Amino acid sequence: MILEPWSRLEGKTVMVTGASSGLGFEFCLDLAKAGCRIVAAARRIEKLESLCQQINNNKMEYSDAINGGARRAIAVELDVTADPTAIEECVRKAWDAFGHIDALINNAGFRGSVKSSLNLPSEEWNQVVKTNLTGSWLVAKFVGKRMRAAARGGSIINISSISGLNRIQVPGAIAYSSSKAGLHLMTKSRTCNIRSIITLVIE
Ligand SMILES: NC(=O)c1ccc[n+]([C@@H]2O[C@H](COP(=O)([O-])OP(=O)(O)OC[C@H]3O[C@@H](n4cnc5c(N)ncnc54)[C@H](OP(=O)(O)O)[C@@H]3O)[C@@H](O)[C@H]2O)c1
């Protein structure tokens, strides 16, 4: 599969989850520089608003040929561990922000604490798996359904980790590693009729 170069994505609309900090925040800035419209999603809405302001106010750097000076980035509050109906509603808002989504970057993630599996509370296991695996599936499901209905293709990129690969052992991260390994397999068993689903592994 040949992907379009990151630097030539003018006019694409990309939804990034976990956009309020870390890698997700940087993906948004970089994609905006490459000419994309950004839907930035996470729980901390004030961080997202500040990111979007940075993109929308910096029209020289984030060249704005596509949008005639209109907003290039929009914040959508999203908790990927919420119930499916709430997630579907967030995806509706994200989709409606620019009328479609060309690519979803499923980046929201939670590592949890470093603990032996014998001492790991089940609440923490559930929170990690719900965020990294179930949440990624639900967001991909609702975006994927809209991509299929719109019949204009689309891509889903799941952000994983080397700790989810079977040749790597990260001590004290049983829930995190299991959830990321699940994300790999979820990516492999592509069931949506969309152009591409890939896992990006971060070291
Ligand atoms: N950094 C690394 O070295 C590294 C290595 C391997 C893999 N990764 C993966 O890369 C991704 C980003 O990592 P990072 O280091 O940038 O993490 P980070 O700085 O801790 O950011 C995590 C992001 O996920 C969001 N998030 C967490 N729980 C969420 C929830 N329930 N609903 C919605 N958003 C949620 C957070 O936003 P809110 O708190 O505002 O919701 C935040 O924006 C993760 O999937 C991580 O597993 C990172």
In a few lines, what is going on in this structure?
The protein is an alpha/beta fold.
The portion of residues forming beta strands comes to 15-25%
Low-confidence stretches: none
The average pLDDT score comes to 89
The number of strands is: 6
Class, according to the CATH hierarchy?
Alpha Beta
The strand order across the widest sheet is 3-2-1-4-5-6
Provide the list of bound ligands, each named once: NADP nicotinamide-adenine-dinucleotide phosphate
Total separate domains: 1
- Please state the CA-atom Rg, rounded to the nearest Å: 17 Å
CATH H-level superfamily: NAD(P)-binding Rossmann-like Domain
Any idea what the shape is? globular
Along the chain, the helix and strand elements come as EHEHEHEHEHE
Number of helices: 5
CATH architecture: 3-Layer(aba) Sandwich
| Class inferred from helices and paired strands | alpha/beta
What distance separates the N and C termini? 22 Å
Biggest sheet overview = 6 strands, parallel
CATH-assigned fold name: Rossmann fold
Organism: Erythranthe guttata
Family: Belongs to the short-chain dehydrogenases/reductases (SDR) family.
Keywords: Coiled coil
Pfam families: adh_short
